[in-house]
Amino acid sequence: MIINELEKKVTGSGTRIVFTEGWDPRVQEAAIKLVENNIVVPILLGEPEEIEACAKENGFDVSNIQQMSPKSFDKMEEMATKMVELRRGKLDMETCKKMLQHTNYFGTMLVQMGYADGLLGGATYSTADTVRPALQLVKTAPGNALVSSCFLLVKGDQQYIMGDCSININPNADELVEITMQTAHTAKQFGIDPKVALLSYSSMGSAKGECVAKMTEASLRLKRMPIDFEIDGEMQFDCAVSPEVAALKAPDSKVAGHANTFIFPNLSSGNIGYKIAARLGGWEAIGPVLQGLNAPINDLSRGCTSQEIYKMAIVTAAQKFLDI
């Protein structure tokens, strides 16, 4: 439902999304569908012969899709100069030119310089290969000290948001506050009124431990802030989603039993949690959606399908077109 609604909103927006792996058949198939449905303006990155070879092998026609190559980009000198400036002297001109031959850096600079509105990569690149250029060149958005991620979990007309599931290994209370703010912002972009539960193995002080303490501290800090969404914790997952359990464990909470946005205490629990929901619970996991960057840049799983790329392109466009 959410993807369908986002698709309607971004259709015809003209949002330009660069795909760092334009030679990948899954990317090409998704790009063709995006053009056919007038969702976004895809830009395939890579060498013309590689893109054409892939298209020919798979019976695709990508002749009406914009393609860009680092080797033939006519403003490479300007781009490399800008990259030297952004890296504040850590890299020289020659090094920057070499790095820009890789489409992850080239694509990120296209976004940074305004030639594109967002980027989608990771079909063959690792998460680090997508996130590192973004942090170095696009950087975090004003008011953000870190980048985090979330997943949209969908089954029928039910939808939940889970974060952080792919970036921050063991965030402290300060970082958890920022992750919560970023994830609530994403939920609003997706049309979800966030009711945020800070998760733990304890509900409202029922157990002790370092992990419990930081979730409790983050919850207290958020409640002191002028936020426009409901938040509570620390609480166990069953307390967060079951009204019956919430009535016993957190009877005074406005969130317990009705949460739709979940913040995990660390990367291990977040990554395991969303994958259990996807693999055993039959939920569709859309993401990771990167949060806190100065432009919409998102990562793909290397095992992604063309349909997943299509949906993530819609999400990336929504982050730009529906920014709130």
Report on this model:
Helix 4 crosses helix 5 (93-99). The chain is 45% helix and 17% strand. The model has no long low-confidence stretch (mean pLDDT 94). A 6-stranded mixed beta sheet has the order 8-7-9-6-5-10, with helices on both faces. It has a 5-stranded parallel beta sheet with strand order 3-2-1-4-11, with helices on both faces. It has helices spanning 2-10, 25-36, 48-58, 76-86, 93-99, 103-112, 127-138, 173-189, 210-224, 237-241, 243-249, 267-279, 306-321, and strands at residues 16-19, 41-45, 66-68, 118-121, 148-155, 158-163, 195-199, 230-235, 261-263, 284-291, 297-299. The protein is globular. The chain has 13 helices and 11 strands. With 324 residues, it is α/β, with parallel strands linked by helices.
Entry summary:
This protein has 324 residues and is an alpha/beta fold.
Supply Rg.
21 Å
Give the mean pLDDT: 94
Biggest sheet details: 6 strands, mixed
Q: Tell me the fraction of residues in β-strands, as a range.
A: 15-25%
The total beta strand count reads: 11
Q: Unreliable stretches, pLDDT < 50, 5 or more residues?
A: none
Helix share bin: 40-55%
Strand arrangement across the biggest beta sheet? 8-7-9-6-5-10
SSE order: HEHEHEHHHEHEEHEHEHHEHEEH
